[in-house]
């Protein structure tokens, strides 16, 4: 999620580094539906439009990050107990982020044709 050339990052409770919003995918749940559900559950955001961006996916040592670009309505607010902070990051200032964040944002800036 972008706003004024800044990207929305979140931090899980008990963690130091920030990541892109997201979460688990339920069995049989489409990736785009999972992204929309997680944004609502964690940040109270309603999806207006969403697109799957396979070329931005990142396979880490513990997780496969499946990427969607989601347009939302409203402003984020912390809901539930999973997150303890969110920030609008300018992608220049030094904040602690996970490696997948840097990879995904780099790929997003260099769009490719989906096959």
In short:
This protein is an alpha+beta fold and 115 residues long. The chain contains two helices and seven strands; from the N terminus they run ββαβββββα.
Radius of gyration: 13 Å
CATH superfamily: Nucleoside Triphosphate Pyrophosphohydrolase
What would you say the CATH architecture is?
Alpha-Beta Complex
Query: Under CATH, the topology is which?
Result: Nucleoside Triphosphate Pyrophosphohydrolase
Q: CA-to-CA gap between the ends?
A: 23 Å
Just give the CATH class: Alpha Beta
Strand content: 25-35%
- Kindly name the structural category: alpha+beta
H/E element order: EEHEEEEEH
Anisotropy-based shape? globular
Helix content: 10-25%
Give the mean pLDDT.
90
Tally of alpha and pi helices = 2
The largest sheet is: 3 strands, antiparallel
The count of domains is 1
Uncertain residue segments: none
How are the strands of the biggest sheet laid out side by side?
Answer: 1-2-7
Give the total of beta strands. Answer: 7
């Amino acid at each position: 999620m972008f706003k004024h050339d800044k990207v929305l990052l979140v931090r899980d409770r008990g963690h130091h580094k920030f990541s892109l919003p997201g979460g688990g995918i339920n069995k049989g749940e489409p990736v785009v539906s999972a992204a929309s559900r997680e944004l609502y559950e964690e940040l109270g955001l309603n999806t207006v439009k969403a697109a799957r961006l396979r070329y931005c996916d990142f396979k880490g040592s513990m997780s496969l990050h499946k990427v969607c670009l989601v347009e939302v309505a409203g402003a984020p607010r912390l809901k539930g107990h999973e997150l303890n902070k969110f920030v609008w990051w300018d992608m220049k200032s030094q904040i602690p982020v996970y490696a997948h964040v840097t990879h995904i944002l780099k790929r997003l800036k260099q769009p490719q044709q989906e096959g």
